[in-house]
Amino acid sequence: MDQTHFGSRISRLRQNKNMTQEQLAARIGVTPQALSRWERGQSLPDLSLLTEVCQILEVSADELLGISTPKSPEQNHDRRHEVVWSRLRNCLEPLELIFGEKLVPVFMNDTYMQKIVEQREKLAAEGILMPVVRVRDELELETNEFQIVSYRRRLYSERLTSFDEHTCDYICGCLGRAVQDNYAHILNQELVKELTDNLQIKFPVLVGGAVPGRISYGLLTDVLKALIRGGCPIAYLEKVIEILDRILRRSPETPEEELARIVSREMKEHISSRRISQ
After folding, report:
1. CA–CA separation, 230 vs 223, rounded Å?
2. What residues have CB less than 8 Å from 158, skipping those under 6 apart?
3. pLDDT tens by residue, 79-95
4. Burial of 187 per CB tally in 10 Å (0-12, 13-18, 19+)
5. How many Å apart are CA 258 and CA 253, to the nearest integer?
6. Which of 70, 197, 226, 276 could form a disulfide with 260, with the two C-beta atoms 3.0–4.6 Å apart?
7. Chain segment 131-170, per-residue pLDDT in tens
8. How far is CA 149 from CA 109, 178, 232, 267, in A?
C-alpha cells in the first residue's frame, strides 16, 4: 500500500463527508494526531481498522486502498453523480483555520483542540456560538502563513516570523477575535437553531411558542445579523425573541427592515436600563 496515495485518498474522502480530522478520529477510535499522520503519508492504519474506516466513509476497501476494479457505465455515472453533490455540499465552510507547512507541528497534538474549546467558551459568554472549525494544512499558502476563512472569505491572515510554545495560543486567539469581529458574516440558520434550542431549555414557553412558528430561523438570523452590524450585542437572545414575538403577534406583516430597526432600538434601551440599575 502506497502511504502517500493512501493518505491523499483518506483525506479526500473525509472532506467529501464534511468531517473534521477530530470527528473522524473519534469515530474510528484513534487520536487526531494518528489520523493526521495517515493523511500526510507518514504512517498507515492497522489493518484491523480498515473495515471501520470504510463503513464510516461509505467506500469500498478497493476504493480506499486504491485498487482498480472494472466498473460498469452505470456505476461510473452513479459515482460521479455522488461526487458532484458531495462537492456542492462541502464547497463552503462556515469556519476554517488553514496553515502552511512550517506550522504543521503546532497542530500535531491535542493542544490546539483545547485552545479552540477555550475560545468557544469565551465567545459563548458573549452570546456567540462558534461553528465547528475545520483545521487543515494548505500547500498553496506560504510555509509560515495561517489564515482564518469563512465561506471562502479570508477573515484574517498572518505570516509568522518565529514559532515557540505560545504559537498555538496566539493563533487560536486570532481565531476567536476573527469570529467575534466577523460574526455577522459567519452566523447562519444552523447556528441560530442551535442557539434557540439551547435557550429553550431555560425559556421553554417563550422560545417554544415563538420559534420557528411566528419567527422563522431565517428571519431571526437576518435580524441578529442586523443587530451585530449595528453594534448591538446578541447576548440577550431571549429579549430579541420576546420583542420580535410581540411585534409579529400585533402586526404579522411588519417588514423585516422595520423589525430590525425596532428590535435594535428596544435592545439598546434594554441594555442601557440594565446598566443604570446596576
Report:
1. 11
2. 145, 146, 174
3. 666 666 555 555 578 99
4. buried
5. 10
6. 226
7. 988 888 888 899 999 999 999 899 999 999 999 999 999 9
8. 22, 9, 24, 30
* Residue whose C-alpha cell reads 499522520 in the numeric block: 37
